[in-house]
Write a structure and sequence with these properties.
Blueprint: E1 2-3, E2 6-10, H1 17-25, E3 30-33, H2 35-43, E4 48-50, H3 51-55, H4 70-77, H5 83-91, E5 99-102, H6 107-112, H7 118-123, H8 128-138, E6 144-146, H9 152-161, E7 165-166, H10 168-200
Parallel strand pairs: 2-3, 2-5, 3-4, 5-6
Antiparallel strand pairs: 1-7
Helix pairs in contact: 4-8, 8-10
């Protein structure tokens, strides 16, 4: 089971996130977040650290670069039971991140708009989101990763029944959902770019 101490939340679809975070706060977790998500959590009275403060690097390039950092991905990918990983994390001040709550830029919704420009579509290709999801899902034994708000209740039930821990079976299922979601997301982007490539010819 995965004990949840540090949670990274960065959402495009913020529905239900405040209620979920308030429930998580009852387990004395620490929150990391970005931009608009950090704001709504703070407005709800929660204590939140900005990812940029944690990494020591500001969000840059119009938000294109904010979570692509070793302190984020090292915290997700580091194997808790691997002595070398643990020592490396300590050496570089990388703290374990035990839960990632991320959903992706609304690419499908963007390209469905009649007035969507090619530039708008490109800007709505999420990079950091899929990277965090995939890192967390690869280390599902220790990291809980949520890509679908429908799973908030499942995770909370596990934590309530297991003193703040999430079951291996739950994490495995959530990891499956991540790779299914990101593969479908990538296919949607490749199909879109393929159609534009055909138009260019």
């Amino acid at each position: 089971m995965a004990l949840i101490k540090k949670v990274l939340i960065s959402l495009s679809d913020k529905s239900g996130s405040v209620e979920f975070a308030k429930e998580l706060a009852k387990f004395k977790v620490e929150f990391l977040s970005t931009g608009g998500t950090a704001k709504i959590l703070r407005d709800a009275g929660l204590n939140v650290s900005d990812v940029s403060d944690y990494t020591g690097f500001p969000e840059m390039m119009d938000g294109r670069v904010k979570t692509l950092h070793p302190k984020i991905h090292g915290g997700l990918l580091g194997l808790r039971e691997n002595k070398e990983h643990v020592e490396t994390m300590k050496k570089h001040n990388i703290e374990p991140i035990d839960m990632v709550v991320v959903n992706l830029y609304p690419f499908k919704e963007t390209i469905s708009k009649p007035n969507c420009t090619f530039e708008d579509a490109i800007e709505n290709i999420d990079i950091g989101g899929p990277a965090m999801l995939r890192s967390a899902a690869k280390n599902f034994q220790s990291v809980t990763v949520i890509v679908d708000p429908k799973d908030y209740e499942v995770v909370l039930n596990d934590m309530k029944q297991n003193n703040g821990k999430v079951l291996y079976k739950t994490n495995l299922n959530l990891a499956y959902k991540v790779y299914k979601t990101t593969s479908e997301y990538d296919k949607m982007i490749s199909d879109y770019l393929g159609s534009k490539n055909s138009e260019a010819v």
